[in-house]
From TrEMBL, chain B:
Organism for this UniProt entry: Actinoallomurus vinaceus
PANTHER family linked to this entry: PHOSPHORIBOSYLFORMYLGLYCINAMIDINE SYNTHASE SUBUNIT PURS
Stated family: Belongs to the PurS family.
Coiled-coil intervals, chain numbering: none
Keyword Cytoplasm: yes
Enzyme Commission number: 6.3.5.3
Protein name: Phosphoribosylformylglycinamidine synthase subunit PurS
Catalysed conversion reaction: N(2)-formyl-N(1)-(5-phospho-beta-D-ribosyl)glycinamide + L-glutamine + ATP + H2O = 2-formamido-N(1)-(5-O-phospho-beta-D-ribosyl)acetamidine + L-glutamate + ADP + phosphate + H(+)
Pathway membership: Purine metabolism; IMP biosynthesis via de novo pathway; 5-amino-1-(5-phospho-D-ribosyl)imidazole from N(2)-formyl-N(1)-(5-phospho-D-ribosyl)glycinamide: step 1/2
Annotated compartments: Cytoplasm
Underlying gene: purS
Top-level enzyme category: ligase
Domain of life: Bacteria
Quaternary organization: Part of the FGAM synthase complex composed of 1 PurL, 1 PurQ and 2 PurS subunits.
Keyword Kinase recorded: no
Amino acid sequence: MSARVGVITFPGSLDDRDAARAVRLADAEPVSLWHAEADLLGVDAVILPGGFSYGDYLRAGAIARFAPLMEKLVAAAGDGLPVLGICNGFQVLCESHLLPGALTRNAGLHFVCRSQRLRIENAGTAWTQDYEEGQEVVVPVKNMDGCYVADRATLDELESTGRVVARYLDVNPNGSLNDIAGICNEAGNVVGLMPHPEHAVEALTGPSTEGLGFFTSAVKKLVQS
Amino acid sequence: MARFIVDVMLKPEILDSQGQAVARALPRLGFEGVTGVRQGKRFEIEVEGPADEAATERVRKMAETLLANPVIETFELRAE
């Protein structure tokens, strides 16, 4: 039986279909989850997709955090459910305090959309096990509020405990501290990533297919367990 | 009816790129002598009943929960 990976749709989510497609290409079954239903439908993992939930009103991810489904998700993440937040999903995870720090307006103030080289810094998380530590991948980055910030103590802790999952190479597109593109929680089951691996899973539409590893990592882990 | 004002500002150590952009635009418009701009948000909250301690506490809770993100922002609250 294939793994079932939930993709949450909030009002204003944009990349839920691409995330579901990436799940399918990783040989798992995508399950659509609606933000207003307080039921995770027994899925084995969850993806919070990119977009502009609630129009990014107030702060990116601030209102989505209080969706009925999020309460269930926070509890399930605490119990070890693999959760990947991409772009707006990363913002929601920070607002939910599942991940430390916050994402603020890009330092350059412009929306940035480009193919971005990243280095996978931690290949031990639920979502990066199919990569090698130090592996470089190219995936799209496209965001308005992608500048990762945290206080010095939090940054030091993330760095010293290997919780920086991916880092920007060549260009820092949004001013993120320490060139941070993605981080994880202590247990490594919750990962937030500003760039979009779900847009780099097929040669026809992506700059590479190097994003697929995030999805196959989680699926492989689920099949093993 | 009571009316409260909540001002939310980025913490001083957080880069305020929007405030910086405003600061850069002002001299171009002939406004000299501006040494810094920080941009924030102002909320005007109207609640039923008097502006007593209980109402103030409720609005404080709103600010802590939703209006401000304590990781990057501070807020000031006052009754008007």
